[in-house]
Amino acid sequence: MKKEVILSGFGGQGVMSIGKNLVEAAVAEDLEASWVPSYGPEMRGGTANCTVIISDERIGAPLVERPSEIIAMNRAALAKFEGAVAAGGTVFVNSSIIPDKVSRTDVKAVYVPCDEIAAGLGNSKVANMVMLGAYIGATGALKQETIEAMIAEMFTGKKAKLVPLNLEALHKGMECGMPA
Amino acid sequence: MTTIYEKTKGLQDTELHYCPGCAHGIVHKLIGEVLEEMDALDTAIGICPVGCAVFAGNYFSFDTIEAAHGRAPAVATAVKRTHPDQPVFTYQGDGDLASIGAAEIVHAAMRGEKFTTVFINNAIYGMTGGQMAPTTLIGQKATTAPMGRTKEQAGMPIRVAEMLSTLDGCVYAERVCVTDIPHLVKAKKAIKKAFARQMSGDGFTFVEILAACPTNWGMEIDEANKWLMENMAAYYPLGVIKDTEAM
Amino acid sequence: MKREIWKGSEAIAEAAIRAGCRCFFGYPITPQNEIPEYMSLHMPQSGGVFVQAESELAAINMVYGAAASGVRAMTSSSSPGVSLKQEGISYMAACQLPAVVVNVMRGGPGLGSIQPAQGDYFQATRGGGNGDYRTVTLAPANIQEAVDLTQEAFDIADQYRNPVVLLADGLIGQMMEPIVWKERTPRQLPEKIWAASGRRGRDHTNFITSLLIDAPACEAHNLELAKKTAEMEKNECRWEEIMLDGAEVVIVAYGTPSRVAQTAAENLRKQGVKAGVFRPITLWPYPYARLKEIAALDTTRVFLDVEMSLGQMLDDVNLAVAERKPVRFYGRCGGSIPHVSEVEQAALEAWKEVK
User: Fold this and answer.
1) Nearest Cβ partner for C61 among B64, B75, B83
2) How far apart are CA A175 and CA A101, in angstroms?
3) Which of C65, C201, C206 sits opposite B78 (nearest CB)?
4) What CA dihedral angle connects C177, C181, C182 and C186, to 10 degrees?
5) Do B43 and B90 touch, CB atoms closer than 8 A?
6) Collapsing DSSP states into helix, strand and coil, what is residue C86?
């Protein structure tokens, strides 16, 4: 098993953090994982992206040319990375923000209205968790229980009340991602 | 028989290499005496400069570290912070402190590092053979200012004690000289006070010592001391520049 | 053991604290700011000293001061900053002072870029400052190794009384991976009886100096240092061999490019090309002897040196291979990272050339 994902969006959309979530969940499942951020002047205000690799074997190159999936949280992200996805791979599109459709026919497209779902749940901040759910639902790369346990660990003490909200966001996202 | 004079235990029993009329030997002795009187020869750590006093570690009878040119305040910062209960000082000349080490001394003073700096200002580079220093006076000749320093070419000399006094981290700064016994007594008092304030944990302490360099000034010893009092002391006024205890 | 996810720079900082580093002195420069940031919080918490110095020069000389007075100390920086630190590194080598210097390399020369690079290989492995000396240079290729080597670096420094350089590239500094905090057995190390930390009853003074103004004395001192250099060369050489069994194309790479090379070699093996990777872990001492043996194997046909520079380690590969087999080179520089496909292509071309 090897997943090579590029996650991209505006700074503040939480792409770096769901990238880390993927790594945390993978490690919890005794897999190998790596996370590489883009860093530099583009960190400030522009598009943020990171590359996550999950594998059951030692990870070589931590950066990828042909990711198995991309997660595009904004329009620029889709434009920049759609062409890179490996044939047969999957493009995850935050359709709340991105009006465009995936133009390639050799990849699967999953449209997730992350911000609408998050708004429906009463907290726009969980849009990224919706997308993480969609990724898990569509790829089955990691177990639902692992992510749920991770969410429970993420929010403790005063923040514990955020657990149900994030779980709901995860589940809604998974429904979007699951093959119909 | 009564002992009327004894060499300080702060210095090793060895011959110094300094030229006749040089202030280094005298100031070494004063530091040795002060640390001996503080009963600190077993704990003191001195940081030596690059310049004529580069061999000071061969003379002091306590532990010493030879720093790269100008970096003594950085070295002392680490030594004092890792040995906060021990007296630590840097011993630096004008090329070392006011030129190549200007950043290090300013920032150590800014941080209020709890060590003492003894600054020997003889307005010339001694060890390298008489080149112009940042403290060389206007009109004073040096091998790199053969017609004498000019303001247009090299700017005005720097008054380090006054400059460091503007920093809140510097709690005590005094300028002294060692040209005669009364001045020497004052100089020792200043060094003693600087170490005392250091050990109280007050902040950065600084003693600037105007010193003659007869060899590189091209003067006889008496002539050099006279020149120092008439010219250097006029531009670099003697006395307490800053003392937060007196404020 | 529990696996924890750490970012490279922060893992290096934490590893240093766990290795008994008591002082950190640094100056901000991208891409390693997480090291001083981490240290500013955690070093004082563990009873140590953190100072943000006014410059890299001051920082390395603070390390010099701490080391001279017998305290474990470290500094970190990135390429242009490490150039400034060379003064202190040379002085520490001369005064036989142990310390750890971390260089998270970025693109150069000059101010360069802030992206990962390996252009400081010569500087790290050839001494870097003035005079005859070497520093053990450790090159991690993943975060676990960065942690292990950082801890080891302090022991190596103390054992030989010599500065040790941890040479990482920007990617290693910035990436996150799972690691475990291993129980480690520290080396048996001599007491620091030479330290200038106050006499405390000692019958002689310790004077730390590198000035030996008489040539014969200075030469004798250099010859003493050279004995240590030989000891380090003998004892501290490390490397890893990846898929080298029967390899016809041997890719030589360290740090991030070695990971790219590993993936390229895997892909090549799938295409029927027997490729493998030789990964030096110590860049000085360089594993010449083992590379020489590999060059002598009948199966070995060609070497491909891959770097994030225009060919610096290449000199060492050539010294080891000594024309027994052809050596080819592929490099990206200035902050660009070689792609797997590029390395694969270069290896394939090298292989076809000698087939």
Assistant:
1) B75
2) 20
3) C65
4) 120
5) no
6) helix
- Is there contact between A and B if contact means ≥3 C-beta pairs under 8 Å? no
User: Using an 8 Å Cβ cutoff, are C298 and C252 in contact?
Assistant: no
Phi, psi of A71 (to 5 degrees): -115, 115
Per DSSP, the three-state class of C251 is: strand
User: Is A62 near chain C, with CB under 8 Å?
Assistant: yes
Does chain C reach chain B with at least 3 CB pairs under 8 Å? yes
Across the interface, which of B44, B45, B66 has its CB nearest the CB of C210? B66
Q: Alpha helix (H) ranges present in chain C? A: 8-18, 34-45, 56-68, 79-95, 121-125, 143-160, 170-174, 215-235, 256-270, 288-296, 313-321, 340-354
Report the alpha-carbon distance of residue C237 to residue C174 in Å, rounded. 26
d(CA C284, CA C281): 9
- Cβ neighbours of A10 (radius 10 Å): 17
Beta strands in A11-84 (DSSP E): 32-37, 47-55, 69-72
Q: Could B79 and C49 be called an inter-chain contact, meaning their C-beta atoms sit closer than 8 Å?
A: no
Closest Cα in chain B, distance from residue C167 (Å): 24
> In sequence order, which residues have a C-beta less than 8 Å from that of residue C179 and are 6 or more positions away?
C3, C4, C5, C6, C11, C143, C144, C147
Q: Which of C54, C59, C69 sits opposite B82 (nearest CB)?
A: C69
How far is it, in rounded angstroms, from Cα B220 to Cα A31? 82
Which residue matches tokens 């920082």?
Answer: C59
**Amino acid identity for residue A6 in this structure:** I
Give residue-wise pLDDT tens across range B153-169.
999 999 999 999 999 99
Is the pLDDT confidence value at B247 over 80?
Answer: no
Give yes or no for a contact between A75 and A57, defined as CB atoms under 8 angstroms apart.
Answer: no
**pLDDT tops 90 at residue A45:** no
For A60, which residue in chain C has the nearest alpha carbon? C259
Half-sphere exposure of C3 (CA within 13 A, CB side): 19
**Is the model's pLDDT at B103 over the cut of 60?**
yes
Q: What percent of chain B has pLDDT over 70?
A: 100
- Cα(C86)–Cα(C124) distance, rounded to whole angstroms? 10
Query: Least CA distance to C339: which residue of chain A?
Result: A65
Under the banding of pLDDT at 50, 70 and 90, the label for residue A12 is confident
Q: Phi and psi for B181 in degrees, rounded to 5? A: -60, -50
How close B86 gets to chain C, by Cα (Å)?
8
Interface of C with A in 206-265 (CB under 8 A): 256, 259-264
Which residue, chain included where needed, has tokens 């006024």? B237
Q: What is the ipTM of this complex?
A: 0.93
C36-56 residue pLDDT tens: 999 999 999 999 999 999 999
Flag whether pLDDT at A40 surpasses 60.
no
Specify the pLDDT at position A179: 79
What are the chain C neighbours of B68 within 8 Å (beta carbons)?
A: 61, 64, 87-88, 91
